[in-house]
Amino acid sequence: MSDIRISTDQAPAPAHTFSQGVVRGGMIQVSGQGPVDPVTNEYLFPGDVKAQTVRTLQNVEAILAAAGAGFEDVLMLRVYLTTRADFAAMNEAYGEFIGSRVGEGGILPCRTTVMTGLPREEMLVEIDALAVAR
Questions:
Q1: Domain 4-132 is found in CATH 3.30.1330.40
Q2: Which GO terms describe its molecular function (predicted)?
Q3: Phi, psi angles (nearest 5°) of residue 130
Q4: Which of 24, 37, 57, 124 has the most C-beta neighbours closer than 10 Å?
């Protein structure tokens, strides 16, 4: 299988020198996504980590879909938060979103959550994904 650059207008265009995602060796890597509207490229929901988490996961989902995959194909999600205080709210929104995509009895992806600084002050959350290409 040759390398494929994933590109979709259903997720924000990369602001820097990277791809939205790459398929290589039977794997899909989705670049870190934030709470950005794919049409306007505006950062959404300032101060609301739950809404930012949902928008961010929608962006990840759009890139997965462009690669012919979905959350049922995801092995690992990495969540980056700016503050530990937002963990419970992020986790609630994350659980509802992922649970609705994987379904009852489905295997939930692995996850790591890291507290760190993010590239934009208005970003409370960033998420990337590693999935299996089908």
A1: yes
A2: deaminase activity
A3: -125, 125
A4: 124
Using CA atoms, how far residue 129 sits from 31, 48, 77, 85, 108, in Å, is 7, 22, 5, 23, 13
pTM, to two decimals: 0.96
Q: Please say whether the beta carbons of 125 and 111 come within 8 A.
A: no
The full set of domain ranges for the chain reads 4-132
Which tens digits make up the pLDDT trace of 42-85?
999 999 999 999 999 999 999 999 999 999 999 999 999 999 99
Select from 9, 63, 71 the least CA-distant residue to 41: 9
Place of tokens 């995509």: 101
CB atoms within 10 A of CB 114: 9
